[in-house]
Amino acid sequence: MVNIYTLKDVSKHNTKEDMWVVLHNKVYNVTAFVPAHPGSEDILITRAAGKDATEAFEDINHSELARETLEQFMIGQLHEDVS
Ligand code: HEM
């Protein structure tokens, strides 16, 4: 069973202590990763926390390693009718 979340659900998790993010219609709980982000934790909090950060993520050409790192944090998918 896949968990389905709306952007409203995701937006409630927008802090350093509890951070979800949407990338390519998948929802990730990246709380544990925030302090380890090579691009700084601040940039994640201000640009990605509780949001769809697909564009910001792709803008800097993240590596395959970054994409693989993400997999362990996936918690579900974005509701397709809610933008
Ligand atoms: C939440 C998912 C994310 C993961 C797992 C992640 C992971 C990483 C990793 C592993 C790197 C090292 C370089 C590489 O391997 O590509 C990196 C660098 C970086 N990330 Fe992210 N990132 C995420 C989201 C973001 C977002 C949303 C932004 C922008 C708003 C961002 C901005 C940056 C920047 C600017 C660097 C470059 C740091 C430098 O080269 O000095 N990241 N990220």
Automatic annotation (TrEMBL):
Residues 2-79 form the Cytochrome b5 heme-binding domain. Keywords: Heme, Iron, Membrane, Metal-binding, Transmembrane, Transmembrane helix. GO terms for cellular component: membrane. One of its GO terms (molecular function) is heme binding. Gene3D superfamilies: Cytochrome b5-like heme/steroid binding domain. It comes from the Eukaryota. Its main location: membrane. The keyword Transmembrane applies. The keyword Signal does not apply. It is found in: Membrane. PANTHER family: CYTOCHROME B5. Belongs to the cytochrome b5 family. This is Cytochrome b5 heme-binding domain-containing protein. It comes from Phycomyces blakesleeanus (strain ATCC 8743b / DSM 1359 / FGSC 10004 / NBRC 33097 / NRRL 1555).
